[in-house]
């Protein structure tokens, strides 16, 4: 510890010629980060040596949404409190690091899951390293202007990045048709908690192969050189901002192949150092988890690399099949990656050729297994001009898994049905989880202290199942303590929102919160409609005993997703109306916070009274925000979808607020016909609410050509050539949703009973630790070592 302060002092001196107390926040961040890196260097090296000697796993992901690293690293090292005190002595508030941007190298759940997994693997001593992309710009920053989302660039590296070491001498090259680029690794230490184990996240940055002496060039060569540099650097310049939507762009394909090829070359280099050119142990020593299909070009790439080492195609493919496992994160058709064959040929022809070989082998294998021709046709990896990446991933993997029980069942019964019939032994479920270090310990020290007191130790930090002990201590005193903590966290969030967004949130109101990416299937619009329903009932004096409620939204829309952007505008229009209506403003407030990200989430999930999880049943693969809210004691107001099902199972459905159509109901309606227009015509209350989209209640900038509410209205009531009306069943679910919301509001008034529900949620959240998930991967898929 003393050591860290000495190192900090030295870095401050040598880098900035300053005393610690003279550093700017950015300088302090860099110096302290480097001091921490110096402190852990020995353990990191020792962990690498240990992992080199054993079977190890790799997590390949195009996204790692790490968030802010400083607090987390100090916390996992167990020195956050001490450093806070030591800095305080120098007159420095540890909160200065809130000025430092998050590392937002991911879109949402999938990227954050990857970050939680790394944290859990390090803590549980699972030899798991991550491989991904070091984007120059992470997920865009969001401003709200006149109710509309506006995007700005996320230049996160402008603060310098003390957590990554550039490893120049382990750079490799990656070739595309007509272009070869250099891949330079940046290594980030992933620090375990209560262990000396440290894992590695290796992120690749694309650069030009040649360093140029620009002055030596004549004009043309200079221009060519600059062009080459730009073309190379463009590959890792920016994270694609779509979640749950496939976008068939050349640059995206390049990103994927770039990091896959670099990572595999890296693994093979390490392997060769140990075994020379004998690759027969490759799959015994290495296992690779594919985080969705984004890294699936690894499969043909490994085959290619092995063929370069002298293997024939069949043997190379067998090794590949033993090496890879695939996690699916979505059932949405528009999110499944389907690359045009001609585009692949244009960019990575050799890889496309190998995919053709794999596709043929697959069809031969199916024939040999006696699979019916019609079924075989549905399983084509290449179908016409389309390469189906999920099929390639499923065929080339040892294990395939979904991310919640319901989701895995849907994969087996629907999305990957034919594959499940032919290869049932490949399918597993691995319900997602979240790390309790960040999502309880770090973000909620007050609740952590109460839990530690009640369960008798801080063992929950590395074994969340001990929370179940809480079930025996839910008495009046504990409930009161919990309620007081919640109150404090609500005040803190109110202060933070005031600082960030300028809103005055009433900390004595119920906080009903929906934070997640904006997507039609997640149904933020349903939440908006329920608020309008309640607003009208309050105005009409039809709703008695309503406890004042603040509805808080946070969501980024993909920049090209017009409907999602219209929904943001609609929510902001509602906010303007209800927050300024003297009849309702003390009962109902609506706020759309801007630039929702990991760090904001850490302040939000701890302060929620209700967790909104409203996706159409069957469409949210798992959700992980739902788990963060549960762990911090907010009951779920949600559908029986994704991991909500397991949350309700663990805590008891009577301790959640579950509403709406179930998967079977949705399926029945799809089969027998669903007529939202008839429901709307028959229910004046629904009609009134839905029509606020078109009746002039709100301004969607129509006159300026931005009018988009009419399109939303149409999407709910009119079949179009490409989509049925109300594809996500909002109108069907609205009445039950409103009833359930009002029931939650009524029950909240009984502070003791409601507090009990909250505590029961906490006590039964043990399952949702990513430690549990990662240990299941280690034991059931990877067969690596782990902490005993
Ligand atoms: O993955 C999400 C799912 O929607 C959640 O239900 C699930 O909990 C998490 C983790 O398993 N999927 C994503 O977040 N997907 C993306 O962000 C994404 C990004 C790029 C391309 C396609 C999807």
Automatic annotation (TrEMBL):
Enzyme class (EC, first level)? transferase
| Domain of life according to the entry | Bacteria
Q: Which GO terms describe its molecular function?
A: 1,4-alpha-oligoglucan phosphorylase activity
Q: Which reaction does it catalyse?
A: [(1->4)-alpha-D-glucosyl](n) + phosphate = [(1->4)-alpha-D-glucosyl](n-1) + alpha-D-glucose 1-phosphate
Coiled coil (residue ranges): none
The protein's UniProt keywords, in alphabetical order, are: Carbohydrate metabolism, Glycosyltransferase, Pyridoxal phosphate, Transferase
Q: State the EC number(s).
A: 2.4.1.1
Q: What InterPro entries does this protein's entry cite?
A: Glycg_phsphrylas, Glyco_trans_35, Pyridoxal_P_attach_site
Q: Identify the Pfam families for this entry.
A: Phosphorylase (PF00343)
User: Which cofactors go with this protein?
Assistant: pyridoxal 5'-phosphate
The UniProt function text for this chain reads: Allosteric enzyme that catalyzes the rate-limiting step in glycogen catabolism, the phosphorolytic cleavage of glycogen to produce glucose-1-phosphate, and plays a central role in maintaining cellular and organismal glucose homeostasis. Phosphorylase is an important allosteric enzyme in carbohydrate metabolism. Enzymes from different sources differ in their regulatory mechanisms and in their natural substrates. However, all known phosphorylases share catalytic and structural properties.
**Family from the record:** Belongs to the glycogen phosphorylase family.
**Name the UniProt record assigns to this protein:** Alpha-1,4 glucan phosphorylase
């Amino acid at each position: 510890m003393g050591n860290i302060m000495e190192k900090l002092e030295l870095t401050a001196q040598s880098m900035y010629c300053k005393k610690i107390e003279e550093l700017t926040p950015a300088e302090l961040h860099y110096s302290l980060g480097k001091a921490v890196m110096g402190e852990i260097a020995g353990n990191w090296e020792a962990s690498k040596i240990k992992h080199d000697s054993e079977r190890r796993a790799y997590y390949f992901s195009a996204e790692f949404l790490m968030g802010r690293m400083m607090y987390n690293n100090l916390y996992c090292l167990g020195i956050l409190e001490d450093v806070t005190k030591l800095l305080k002595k120098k007159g420095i508030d540890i909160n200065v690091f809130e000025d430092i941007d998050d590392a937002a190298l991911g879109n949402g759940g999938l990227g954050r899951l990857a970050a939680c997994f790394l944290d859990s693997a390090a803590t549980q001593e699972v030899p798991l390293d991550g491989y991904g992309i070091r984007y120059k710009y992470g997920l865009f920053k969001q401003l709200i202007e006149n109710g509309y989302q506006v995007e700005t660039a996320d230049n996160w590296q402008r603060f310098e990045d003390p957590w990554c070491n550039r490893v120049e001498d382990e750079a490799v090259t990656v070739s595309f048709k007509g272009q070869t680029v250099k891949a330079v690794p940046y290594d980030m230490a992933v620090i375990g908690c209560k262990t000396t184990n440290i894992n590695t996240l290796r992120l690749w940055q694309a650069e030009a192969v040649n360093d140029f002496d620009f002055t030596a060039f004549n004009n043309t060569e200079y221009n060519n050189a600059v062009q080459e540099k730009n073309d190379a650097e463009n590959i890792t310049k920016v994270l694609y901002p779509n979640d749950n939507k496939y976008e068939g762009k050349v640059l995206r394909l390049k990103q994927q192949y770039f990091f896959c090829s670099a990572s595999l070359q890296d693994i093979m280099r390490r392997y060769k150092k140990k075994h020379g050119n004998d690759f027969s142990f490759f799959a015994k020593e290495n296992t690779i988890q594919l985080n969705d299909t984004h890294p699936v070009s690894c499969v043909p790439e490994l085959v290619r690399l092995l063929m370069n080492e002298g293997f024939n195609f069949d043997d190379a493919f067998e090794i590949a099949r033993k090496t890879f496992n695939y996690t699916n994160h979505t059932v949405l058709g528009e999110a499944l990656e389907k690359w045009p064959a001609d585009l692949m040929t244009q960019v990575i022809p050799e890889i496309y050729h190998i995919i053709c070989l794999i596709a043929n082998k697959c069809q031969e294998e199916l024939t040999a297994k006696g699979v019916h021709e019609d079924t075989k046709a549905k399983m084509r990896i290449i179908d016409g001009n389309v390469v189906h990446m999920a099929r390639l991933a499923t065929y080339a993997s040892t294990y395939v898994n979904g991310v919640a029980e319901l989701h895995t069942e849907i994969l087996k019964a629907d999305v990957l049905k034919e594959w499940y019939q032919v290869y049932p032994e490949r399918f597993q479920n691995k319900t997602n989880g979240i790390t309790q270090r960040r999502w309880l310990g770090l973000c909620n020290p007050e609740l952590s202290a109460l839990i530690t007191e009640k369960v008798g130790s801080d063992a929950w930090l590395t074994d969340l199942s001990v929370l179940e002990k809480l079930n025996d201590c839910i008495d009046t005193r504990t409930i009161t303590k919990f309620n007081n903590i919640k109150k404090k966290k609500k005040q803190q969030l109110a202060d933070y929102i005031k600082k960030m967004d300028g809103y005055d949130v009433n900390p004595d109101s119920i906080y009903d919160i929906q934070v997640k990416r904006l997507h039609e299937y997640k149904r933020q619009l349903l939440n908006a409609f329920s608020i309008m329903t309640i607003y009208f009932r309050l105005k009409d004096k039809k709703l008695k005993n309503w406890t004042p409620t603040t509805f808080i939204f946070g969501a980024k829309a993909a920049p090209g997703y017009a409907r999602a952007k219209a929904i943001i505008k609609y929510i902001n229009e509602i906010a303007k109306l209800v927050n300024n209506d003297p009849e309702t403003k003390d009962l109902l407030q609506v706020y759309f916070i801007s630039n929702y990200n990991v760090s904001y989430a850490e302040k939000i999930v701890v302060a929620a009274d209700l967790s909104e999880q409203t996706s159409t049943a069957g469409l949210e693969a798992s959700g992980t925000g739902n788990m963060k809210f549960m762990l911090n004691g907010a009951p779920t107001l949600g559908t029986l979808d994704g991991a909500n099902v397991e949350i309700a199972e663990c805590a008891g459905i009577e301790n959640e607020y579950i509403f709406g159509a179930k998967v079977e109901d949705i399926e029945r309606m799809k089969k027998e016909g669903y007529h939202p227009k008839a429901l709307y015509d028959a229910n004046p209350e629904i009609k009134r609410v839905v029509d606020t989209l078109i009746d002039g209640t709100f301004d969607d900038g129509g006159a300026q050509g931005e009018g988009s509410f009419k399109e939303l209205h149409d999407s709910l009531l009119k079949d179009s050539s490409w989509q049925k009306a109300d594809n996500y069943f909002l109108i069907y679910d609205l009445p039950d949703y409103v009833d359930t919301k009002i029931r939650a509001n009524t029950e909240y008034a009984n502070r003791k009973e409601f507090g009990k529900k909250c505590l029961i949620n906490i006590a039964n959240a043990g399952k949702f630790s990513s430690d549990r998930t990662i240990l299941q991967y280690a034991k059931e898929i990877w067969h690596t070592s782990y902490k005993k």
